[in-house]
Design brief:
This protein has about 120 residues and is of the alpha+beta class. The relative contact order is 0.12. The chain has four helices and five strands; from the N terminus they run E-H-E-E-H-H-H-E-E. The chain is flat and about 65 Å long. The chain has one domain: 2-Layer Sandwich (Double Stranded RNA Binding Domain). GO terms for molecular function: translation release factor activity.
Length: about 120
């Protein structure tokens, strides 16, 4: 069974911010921007790294940590479904279900239907 690549996420899909790391390290830590923050633009997932003195290694670590976040995993599932055509109709179903929502507010210790939603 062969697998086909549906899509890939690369460094081009991310924004990298470089800054000085915090904590111990002395003179070297205070003069170099070796800490890295990787933000995936579409999902908003963020990964950070300031473990190494090497900016390059921190960039790789930050990218990996970003890809391991729950926010990125959720985006990945939705994007995969969308590209496979399984996402079609979900918006219609959400709209249909939203019409069935019942909103209640507490008045005098009792829950009653909210007049703004009836």
């Amino acid at each position: 069974m062969s697998r086909e690549v549906l899509f890939s996420v690369t460094a081009k899909d991310c924004r990298f911010d470089y800054y000085r790391g915090s904590g111990k390290g002395g003179q070297h830590r205070n003069k170099t921007d070796s800490a890295v923050r990787c933000t995936h633009i579409e999902s908003g997932a963020v990964g950070k790294a300031e473990d190494n003195r090497s900016q390059h290694k921190n960039k790789q670590t930050a990218f990996r940590r970003m890809a391991e976040t729950q926010r990125f995993k959720d985006w990945h599932k939705i994007e995969t479904a969308r590209r496979l055509g399984r996402y079609v109709g979900i918006d219609d179903e959400v709209d249909r279900q939203m019409k069935r929502i019942r909103v209640e507010v507490k008045e005098g210790g009792k829950w009653v239907p909210d007049p703004a939603f009836t």
